[in-house]
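Collaboration report, partner site 2.

Our partner group contributed sequences for two proteins of shared interest, and the home lab folded both. The records are reproduced in the order in which they were received, starting with the first partner submission.
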Amino acid sequence: MTPGQSVWGTVIGTAVSAGALAYAQVALPTQVLLSDYALVSGGLMPVLVGMLALAGACLSLAYGLAASDPVRTAPARVLLIAGAAGLMMSAIFPTDPGTSQVGSLSGEIHRWSAAVVFTSLPVAGWVLARGRAAAPRWNAVRAMSVASAVTLAIYLAAHPATVTSPLINGGAYYGLLERAVVLAEMVLLTAMALAIGAGRSGVRTEVAPAEPAEAKGRPEHPGQQERLAA
């Protein structure tokens, strides 16, 4: 896989993940959280495809960063790999039913793995864009990193497990906020991939300086001018 292919792998993996989760949202009975679709008939496969495709997108982006700038992007790559691992663990260990009051071991692993995913990706985007020039592509990465972090903070405040949820009636809309977090992080991954891809294309399209006009008619070998005059 070339660095350019890794960028496309990130974009395609993110699109497949979004499509799989959108299918579950539209075709299956409405669930509070996206993970809950795995517990209904016909919902396990789209949830698995969505999580694993997004994990593949994270790994593909990490590979592209290693190939393009291995030293500067090391912290972002570690966070992306952590996010991919969290997604794979969330796929392997299903969540508890929404009505369950007792958390199983599988449900706890799923919950903490999802926490790793939700927190690692915004930090990866911010770390990757930190210190970069104020180009539009890096401004987009910074903006989506902040948007993802802010949306995550609101989601956590609204989650019924927190003490702040009753104060803001979070139980009524925390499922919508979870979907907003997932969507924001998908857009962030795509923005990161496109920023790296744009940087590589800018390097490839550099043009060598033109040869001075007076050098164009200069003979290649010494004495050529004398032979032409003769």
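Second partner submission, folded after the first:
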Amino acid sequence: MSKSTKQPTMKDVSRLAGVSLGTVSKVFNGIPVGDEYKSKVEAAAKALGYQVNVYARGLRASKTNTVAVILPNVINPFYSNMADYCCRRLNEKGYRMLLSTTSYDPDTEQACVDMVQQNKVDGIIAITYNPKLEVNEDIPFVIIDRKFHANIPCVSSDNYTGGQLAAEKLIEKGCKKLLFLGISSHVPGEADKRSVGFENYCNSQGVGCTIHRVWDEDGIDEIFSFVDDSTTKGKFKYDGIFCATDALAVQIIDRLNKLGVSVPKDVQIIGYDGIKIFGLDKYPCSTIEQPLEQMATTAVDILLSDKDSNHPALICLPVRYCEGGTTK
């Protein structure tokens, strides 16, 4: 039986590089040394297959260069894109990402926060639906889309303006009887402002508007029932729909098609998020696009900023309208 290969140590790197152990330590900890010494250490480490134990080093320095990102899931393209953009920005900053998913369950959210706090992460970025979430005040925390604590910065798109923009575009394209469709959580969030902006703009223009929102537990079936009840012999009661998300818009388009209602000929539809079709540079529906990359970058930059930095409680980033073939 062959002996197991011994893992190389910093002393081995020092010996092969022909430099002191202190110089090796400086290189691995990012402390400036001469270029010649740095090159020797890096070459020796590579030759030996030596890897820095970032976690052990972090425990000594009370820093692990790891940030936890907690999301409901990574099946929804909005969340998977958010995770990807966060990961990219963290990599640029020399950090690693620890990803956890919660399936929208408040208890799982708290368990994830407790777990990552015990693992000594340097901060947490989360989308959470738990209004009673307990977070250690000593750990940097940034929340996306849902403000729940005065001392925790929230990064969001400008949902209210997005709702206004959706109404403006539908009216501009000739719609006269508008409908908002959405599935909401019982926990208030920034996304709730989409319907408020939509309704207020319709009212300001004297255009008829119906808001139909259901709770999470009712789900898509209740929305489908409303759509079915609003359709008679292939004629839909409304000529313009603003859906709270692109995912909902795609489902509504499919439902209307099955009922013999043509989109956008009979009904024009705008979603919200700006998620592109996988592998293609186009949208599955006309949409209000959230600046996902900017939201993720902003969240990371705030999280890693100086502890004494004074950030606004809510950072609202601009949205824009994008054509996607479901409006005229």
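Feedback sent to the partner group on the second submission included the following. The first strand starts at residue 66 and ends at 71. The CA atoms of residues 145 and 156 lie 5 Å apart.
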